[in-house]
């Protein structure tokens, strides 16, 4: 249902834009905002309808404890989200300062294309989080996370390699002549994209077991690298420097999370090598998720 509503929201934004652009001749930025409002409201109402059968009204017993835990965990999550958002986008402002808005346009487009490769790991992470947060079996949570790490790694490698070798002419044909340098952005982002696909799974493991602060710390580490790398590499190398900065940040975030994951679970790098048993485990979980 989550995936259906996500697709619906994006589809509605597109339909609203097309209608406002071509039928009402409103080729303005406000048309996008209007489409965003309409799609968000509709999907919110449909989400509410879907979740209503699961809502149970209970007495306010232990209310103070619930509020305390909500503030505790919520603070870590929100601070982590803010820091990670800054980590994603700070390079844009640094790039604009030293290379101009045109470079930002190319970099943001290249980044969006590269980040779309996280679709598989993000989809798996949604299922992973729901499964782990409702489980008390640590062994099961670790096995599931390792399985999803392998799938994410294989999927992102299969997707990123063709993207790296697409010629500049392809992007110019689709997006225009000004976007011929997008392959440079994608090339220097590719390693970071691969690592961060793994980070998506590791992040949801820590969230699922209630250790949100680990993700907050990893985001803060990544932001420090973005700040220092951005002001050193972007003035010197422009688009290439912005992509390298992001890659360094993503790699360090993932390494930090893996070190903590390894320490807590005794996992090894060799556990990321696909094994025959993984297919049977995946088949089992697929049946469970369908039911």
Can you characterise this structure?
The structure is a single chain. With about 290 residues, the protein is an all-alpha fold. It has eleven helices and no strands. Helix 3 packs across helix 4 (about 100-115), helix 5 (about 120-135) runs antiparallel to helix 6 (about 140-165) and helix 9 (about 210-235) runs antiparallel to helix 10 (about 240-265). It is globular, with a radius of gyration of 21 Å. The mean pLDDT is about 85.
How does the SSE layout of this entry go?
Layout: H1 2-23, H2 29-51, H3 63-99, H4 101-115, H5 119-133, H6 138-164, H7 168-175, H8 182-208, H9 212-237, H10 239-265, H11 276-290
Helix pairs in contact: 1-2, 3-4, 3-9, 3-10, 4-8, 5-6, 5-8, 6-8, 8-9, 8-10, 9-10
Number of strands: 0
First CA to last CA: what distance?
A: 13 Å
| Shape designation | globular
The sequence of SSEs as H and E is HHHHHHHHHHH
Features:
0% strand, 291 residues, single chain, mainly alpha
Short description:
With 291 residues, the chain is mainly α.
């Amino acid at each position: 249902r989550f995936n259906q509503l996500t697709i619906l929201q994006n589809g509605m934004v597109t339909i609203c834009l097309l209608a406002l652009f071509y039928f009402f001749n409103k080729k303005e930025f406000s048309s996008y905002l209007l489409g965003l409002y309409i799609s968000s409201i509709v999907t919110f109402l449909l989400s509410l309808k879907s979740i209503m059968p699961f809502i149970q009204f209970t007495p306010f017993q232990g209310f103070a404890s619930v509020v305390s835990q909500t503030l505790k965990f919520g603070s870590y999550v929100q601070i982590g989200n803010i820091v990670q958002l800054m980590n994603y986008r700070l390079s844009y402002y640094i790039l604009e300062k030293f290379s101009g808005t045109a470079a930002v346009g190319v970099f943001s487009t290249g980044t969006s294309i590269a980040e779309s490769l996280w679709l598989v790991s993000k989809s798996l992470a949604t299922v992973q989080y729901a499964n782990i947060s409702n489980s008390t079996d640590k062994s099961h949570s670790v096995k599931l996370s390792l399985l999803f790490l392998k799938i994410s790694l294989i999927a992102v490698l299969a997707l990123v390699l063709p993207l790296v070798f697409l010629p500049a002419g392809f992007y110019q044909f689709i997006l225009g002549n000004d976007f011929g340098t997008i392959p440079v952005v994608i090339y220097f982002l590719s390693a970071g994209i691969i690592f961060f696909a793994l980070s998506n799974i590791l992040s949801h493991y820590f969230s699922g077991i209630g250790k949100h602060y680990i993700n907050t710390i990893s985001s803060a580490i990544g932001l420090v690298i973005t700040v220092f790398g951005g002001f050193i590499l972007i003035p010197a190398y422009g688009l290439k420097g912005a992509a390298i900065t992001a890659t360094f940040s993503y790699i360090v975030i993932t390494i930090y999370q893996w070190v903590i994951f390894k320490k807590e679970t005794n996992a090894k790098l060799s556990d990321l090598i696909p094994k025959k048993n993984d297919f049977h485990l995946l088949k089992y979980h697929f049946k469970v998720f369908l039911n």
